[in-house]
C-alpha cells in the first residue's frame, strides 16, 4: 500500500497541479521577454501587437517607431497566419510593413525593418511584381502599401487609406520598456551583484572598524589585565585624563609634601570631587601588570583611617596613584611648618592624631589576612582631615630597601613584587612569638621559588 505522502504526491501531480512540458516552459520564458500586452511571434524572436484605431500607413509606422519598433514584417506563412488572427480580433484589414517603391528595374517591395524580405509564396495577384514595362508601371500608382486580412494573403492598398495596424519588436536585439535581451539582463545582474557585494563588504568593514576602535579605546582606558587585578570601586585612568584634571601637573596644583617621588597634585574629577594624584618616579623595571597588582592589594584595604585609593595609571613606565583628597595634608607640615592661618597642634589634637593613626595600624596588623606591616610610618605618610583625624597612606617603597649596589638604575633590579615577598618572609621569621615563625623547610622552599627566573 502507498503511504500517505505518496498518495499526496500522486494527487498533486495528477489532479490539481497542471503538468508543464519543457516546450511550454520555453514558450513561457520567451513570452516574458515581450512587453505587457504584446504577443510572441511563431519564430519566438519578435513581439507583435495589434493597435486599434484607423491611421494611414505613414502614421501607423510612426506610431510603431514610438515603441522602438516598426510595422510588422511577415516573411513566412506562420507569421502571416499569426498576423491574420491578430487582425481578425477587431478589423477586416491591418497595415503591415511592406511598401512598394519604383526602381529602374520595376516595382519592388521593401519592409520597414530593412532586413525582412518578401516571401513570394505569400503574394496575391494584387502585387504586380512582374510589371517591368514602362506602360505597366505608368498605369499603376506607386503609392501602395501592404495590408493583411483574414480572407486573403498580403494585398496592396493606397498608403493614405486608414486601417488598424500591427507593430513588431525585435526581441533579440533591442530593449523595449525595460524588457531587455538576455545578455543585457545578465550584465545588469552581474553589475548589481558586484555593487551589492561591494556595499555589503564596505558596511561589514565599517562595523568591524568601529568595533575595533571601541576595543582599542577600551583597552587604552581600562587594560584587560588590569581589570582582573583592580577592585571595581576604582579606576584605571588614562594619562590624558590625569593631565586634564591636574592642569597638566601645573605648579599651582602641586601639593606640599615629599617631592622625592615625583610630587603630588590636586585634581578635580568631572563629577566635582577632588583627588590627589601622586606622581611616582619613572620605573623601567616594573611592568604594568606588576604595578596594578601591587596597587590593587593596597586598594582593597578599606578603613576610615587609611587613605582610600581611587585609581591609578601606568603609561610606558610613568606611574600615578590617585588618592582621595585629605584636606589638611601631611602631618609633618603641621609639626614643623604650621600653615598660614593655622594653629599649633595642642595636646588634645595630638592625642586624636595618635589614636586614629594607631587604629589604622591595628587594622593592618590584626584584621587583614595575611597581616600587613606598613614599614614606612612617618609624619609625611600621615594625612590629616578637616577634624585632624589621621589617615595612613600606603603607595609602594620596597625598592628603597635595596642595597645601593643593586638599587635602580642597576640592570639586575628585582621586581617590586619579588622584593615584597622577601620582606614578608623576613618579617615572618622575626616574629616575637616562636610559634608564629615559619619552619625553615618552608623558608627554603619559598626562597627557592623566589630565586627561579
UniProtKB/TrEMBL annotation:
<keyword id="KW-1133">Transmembrane helix</keyword>
<feature type="domain" description="Protein kinase">
    <location>
        <begin position="250"/>
        <end position="453"/>
    </location>
</feature>
<dbReference type="Pfam" id="PF00059">
    <property type="entry name" value="Lectin_C"/>
</dbReference>
<keyword id="KW-0472">Membrane</keyword>
<dbReference type="Pfam" id="PF07714">
    <property type="entry name" value="PK_Tyr_Ser-Thr"/>
</dbReference>
<dbReference type="GO" id="GO:0004672">
    <property type="term" value="F:protein kinase activity"/>
</dbReference>
<protein>
    <recommendedName>
        <fullName>C-type lectin receptor-like tyrosine-protein kinase At1g52310</fullName>
    </recommendedName>
</protein>
<keyword id="KW-0812">Transmembrane</keyword>
<dbReference type="InterPro" id="IPR001245">
    <property type="entry name" value="Ser-Thr/Tyr_kinase_cat_dom"/>
</dbReference>
<dbReference type="InterPro" id="IPR000719">
    <property type="entry name" value="Prot_kinase_dom"/>
</dbReference>
<feature type="transmembrane region" description="Helical">
    <location>
        <begin position="184"/>
        <end position="209"/>
    </location>
</feature>
<dbReference type="InterPro" id="IPR016187">
    <property type="entry name" value="CTDL_fold"/>
</dbReference>
<keyword id="KW-0418">Kinase</keyword>
<dbReference type="GO" id="GO:0005524">
    <property type="term" value="F:ATP binding"/>
</dbReference>
<keyword id="KW-0808">Transferase</keyword>
<dbReference type="InterPro" id="IPR016186">
    <property type="entry name" value="C-type_lectin-like/link_sf"/>
</dbReference>
<keyword id="KW-0067">ATP-binding</keyword>
<feature type="domain" description="C-type lectin">
    <location>
        <begin position="43"/>
        <end position="168"/>
    </location>
</feature>
<dbReference type="InterPro" id="IPR011009">
    <property type="entry name" value="Kinase-like_dom_sf"/>
</dbReference>
<dbReference type="InterPro" id="IPR001304">
    <property type="entry name" value="C-type_lectin-like"/>
</dbReference>
<dbReference type="InterPro" id="IPR052059">
    <property type="entry name" value="CR_Ser/Thr_kinase"/>
</dbReference>
<keyword id="KW-0547">Nucleotide-binding</keyword>
Amino acid at each position: 500500500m502507498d503511504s500517505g505522502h505518496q498518495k499526496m504526491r500522486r494527487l498533486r501531480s495528477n489532479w490539481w497541479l497542471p503538468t508543464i512540458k519543457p516546450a511550454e516552459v520555453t514558450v513561457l520564458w520567451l513570452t516574458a521577454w515581450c512587453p505587457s500586452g504584446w504577443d510572441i511571434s511563431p519564430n519566438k524572436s519578435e513581439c507583435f501587437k495589434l493597435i486599434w484605431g484607423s491611421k494611414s500607413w505613414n502614421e501607423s509606422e510612426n506610431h510603431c517607431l514610438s515603441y522602438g519598433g516598426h510595422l510588422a514584417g511577415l516573411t513566412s506563412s506562420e507569421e502571416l497566419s499569426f498576423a491574420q488572427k491578430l487582425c481578425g480580433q477587431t478589423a477586416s484589414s491591418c497595415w503591415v510593413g511592406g511598401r512598394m517603391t519604383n526602381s529602374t528595374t520595376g516595382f519592388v517591395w521593401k519592409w520597414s525593418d530593412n532586413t525582412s524580405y518578401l516571401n513570394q509564396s505569400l503574394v496575391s495577384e494584387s502585387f504586380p511584381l512582374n510589371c517591368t514595362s514602362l506602360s505597366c508601371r505608368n498605369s499603376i500608382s506607386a503609392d501602395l502599401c501592404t495590408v493583411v486580412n483574414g480572407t486573403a494573403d498580403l494585398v496592396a492598398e493606397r498608403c493614405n487609406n486608414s486601417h488598424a495596424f500591427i507593430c513588431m519588436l525585435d526581441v533579440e536585439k533591442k530593449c523595449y520598456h525595460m524588457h531587455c535581451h538576455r545578455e543585457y539582463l545578465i550584465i545588469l545582474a552581474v553589475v548589481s551583484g558586484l555593487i551589492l557585494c561591494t556595499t555589503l563588504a564596505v558596511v561589514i568593514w565599517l562595523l568591524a572598524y568601529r568595533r575595533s576602535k571601541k576595543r582599542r579605546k577600551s583597552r587604552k582606558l581600562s587594560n584587560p589585565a588590569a581589570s582582573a587585578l583592580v577592585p571595581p570601586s576604582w579606576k584605571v585612568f588614562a594619562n590624558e585624563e590625569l593631565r586634564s584634571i591636574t592642569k597638566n601637573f601645573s605648579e599651582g596644583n602641586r601639593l606640599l609634601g615629599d617631592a622625592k617621588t615625583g610630587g603630588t597634585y590636586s585634581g578635580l574629577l568631572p563629577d566635582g570631587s577632588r583627588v590627589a594624584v601622586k606622581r611616582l618616579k619613572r620605573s623601567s623595571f616594573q611592568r604594568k601588570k606588576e604595578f596594578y597588582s601591587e596597587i590593587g592589594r593596597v586598594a582593597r584595604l578599606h578603613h576610615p583611617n587609611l587613605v582610600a585609593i581611587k585609581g591609578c595609571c601606568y603609561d610606558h613606565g610613568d606611574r600615578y596613584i590617585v588618592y582621595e583628597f585629605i584636606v589638611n595634608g601631611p602631618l609633618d607640615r603641621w609639626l614643623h611648618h604650621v600653615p598660614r592661618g593655622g594653629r599649633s597642634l595642642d595636646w588634645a589634637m595630638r592625642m586624636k592624631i595618635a589614636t586614629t593613626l594607631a587604629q589604622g595600624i591595628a587594622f593592618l596588623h590584626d584584621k587583614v589576612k595575611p597581616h600587613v606591616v606598613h614599614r614606612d610610618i612617618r609624619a609625611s605618610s600621615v594625612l590629616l582631615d578637616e577634624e585632624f583625624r589621621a589617615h595612613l597612606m600606603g603607595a609602594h617603597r620596597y625598592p628603597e630597601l635595596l642595597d645601593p649596589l643593586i638599587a635602580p638604575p642597576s640592570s639586575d633590579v628585582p621586581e617590586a613584587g619579588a622584593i615584597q615577598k622577601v620582606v614578608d618572609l623576613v618579617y615572618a621569621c622575626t616574629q616575637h612569638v616562636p610559634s608564629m615563625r615559619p619552619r625553615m623547610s618552608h623558608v627554603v622552599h619559598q626562597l627557592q621559588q623566589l630565586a627561579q627566573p
